Amino acid sequence: MPTLAGLLALALGSGVNLYATALTLGLSARFGWISGLPPELGVLGHPLLLTLAGTLYAVEFIADKVPFITPVWDAIHTFIRPLGAALLASQAAAELDPVVRVAAVLLSGSVALAAHSGKMGARLAAHSVPDPVTHSAISIAEDFGVVSVLVLAWQHPLIALPVLIVVLLGLALLLRVFYRAIKGHFVRIRGWFLRAQGRPDVV
Prior knowledge:
Layout: H1 2-31, H2 47-63, H3 70-76, H4 80-92, H5 98-126, H6 132-155, H7 157-196
């Protein structure tokens, strides 16, 4: 159960903010902030990787708070976040049976993709209120949630597991929001394109 809780937390965190996840795990491995981390994740505490994760997190921290930059940044990370989650899961599960390790990689990549999609859906819906303060508050809440989930998963896995399952169910609902938001944006873009062609009567 500790392993499952840790992998789910790692995948969810990576899907929302890969660099915050890597930075949190790296600092925790280096300074012992979280007990019970797989020793294989200790490589994230290397100064080079900490510097890289910190720099990328700083870039994302800024990009994630500008209303019309956020969707572009998220679109770029559609493949980066699930891949990063899969790589971290592979490292965390290095000592497990090879079959279990492959399953962990597949599960983590899928959960990270779901988390990323849910985040994109929520952010696209939030663009109906293009207020930087609102987007900044959402972004800070996401970062706080990532750190909290990681700490909870490895410090109190029996408590974290049901919490993570509830979060996954919530993600399923957010995916519906994502689908509706994307559909609405495509309808608007198609309308603008048709009007540009002089066919405002076509919907």
